[in-house]
């Protein structure tokens, strides 16, 4: 009897429930994806830092071989930047440029989205106006500057119109394309449930076109920065464009590069902000091909 009790009993191995195994596998995959994204982000940051260091080294080398007139030293640019921010020169110029940029971009976004929705939502109107939109878009914006000066003068109003003319067409074209290429399956589904045309337009087509609209706004914001500088260079010189013209005419290359850096940072921030908004608003879209 004692020997029988001492004999070990073979028991089956404990198995995890299927749901626990599936959750564990999902967590493992998610962890691997997170580590992969972290490695990729570190590589991107490392490559960007290496590029910055290479650019700075190139500036020093070019300055040593060609002098300050061709390329200023980075430390001279930094000192000039600190001086211009300290005495308020850069702050005043940035405020003037942001006023023109903001009003021009707001006007171009409003009119571009409104006309784009009209062209994309009403096919007959789109077919009638499409040649005229393409003709205006293919004409260089600089060709309209003399006419804008005659109509609006040389000051803020004219500069805002120049920025509007530069940025409105990318916004308009992207909006019209997004509306006209709305998800046909969603539209047909809405019609099958008896939705009216106005309901389909505002609740299906316009929301589905939102990523395209935001993409147009991102492109328009970048072009608005360029348009602002062009307007300030060609009309009454003020803002960052006026500082560029003043520094260039006097061959003050350290001052010139200080202003260029501000313009680069400004354009990068605007583009990053709109790209973030584009990513956030695009999350709701349903991908039928992925069965989500």
UniProtKB/TrEMBL annotation:
Q: Which InterPro entries match?
A: MetI-like, MetI-like_sf
Q: Which SUPFAM superfamilies match?
A: MetI-like
One GO biological-process annotation of the entry reads:
transmembrane transport
Q: What is this protein called?
A: ABC transporter permease
Q: Does the keyword Membrane apply?
A: yes
The family note in this entry says: Belongs to the binding-protein-dependent transport system permease family.
- Please state the protein's primary subcellular location: membrane
Domain spans labelled ABC transmembrane type-1: 94-274
A GO CC term attached to the entry: plasma membrane
UniProt keyword annotation of Cell wall biogenesis/degradation present: no
As for subcellular location, the record says: Cell membrane
Q: Where are the transmembrane segments?
A: 42-62, 98-120, 132-154, 160-179, 256-277
Residues making up the signal peptide according to the UniProt record: none
Question: Per its UniProt record, what Pfam families does this chain match?
Answer: BPD_transp_1
- State the annotated membrane topology for this chain: Multi-pass membrane protein
Alphabetically ordered keywords of this record: Cell membrane, Membrane, Transmembrane, Transmembrane helix, Transport
């Amino acid at each position: 009897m004692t020997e029988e009790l001492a004999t070990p009993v073979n028991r089956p191995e404990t198995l995890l429930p299927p749901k626990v195994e599936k959750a564990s596998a999902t967590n493992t995959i998610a962890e691997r994806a997170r580590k992969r994204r972290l490695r990729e982000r570190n590589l991107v940051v490392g490559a960007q830092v290496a590029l910055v260091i290479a650019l700075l080294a190139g500036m020093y080398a070019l300055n040593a071989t060609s002098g300050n007139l061709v390329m200023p030293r980075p430390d001279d640019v930094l000192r000039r930047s600190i001086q211009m921010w300290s005495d308020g020169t850069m702050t005043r110029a940035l405020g003037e440029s942001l006023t023109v940029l903001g009003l021009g971009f707001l006007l171009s976004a409003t009119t571009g989205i409104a006309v784009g929705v009209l062209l994309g939502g009403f096919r007959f109107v789109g077919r009638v106006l499409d040649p005229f939109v393409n003709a205006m878009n293919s004409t260089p914006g600089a060709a309209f500057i003399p006419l804008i000066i005659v109509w609006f003068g040389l000051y803020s109003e004219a500069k805002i119109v120049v920025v509007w003319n530069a940025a409105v067409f990318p916004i308009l074209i992207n909006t019209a394309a997004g509306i006209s290429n709305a998800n046909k399956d969603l539209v047909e589904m809405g019609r099958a449930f008896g939705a009216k045309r106005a309901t389909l337009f505002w609740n299906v087509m316009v929301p589905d076109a939102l990523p395209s609209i935001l993409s147009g706004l991102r492109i328009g914001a970048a072009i608005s920065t360029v348009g602002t500088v062009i307007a300030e260079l060609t009309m009454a010189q003020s803002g960052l464009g006026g500082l560029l013209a003043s520094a260039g005419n006097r061959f003050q290359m350290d001052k010139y590069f200080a202003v260029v850096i501000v313009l680069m940072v400004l354009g990068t921030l605007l583009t990053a902000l709109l790209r973030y908004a584009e990513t956030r608003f695009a999350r709701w879209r349903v991908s039928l091909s992925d069965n989500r």
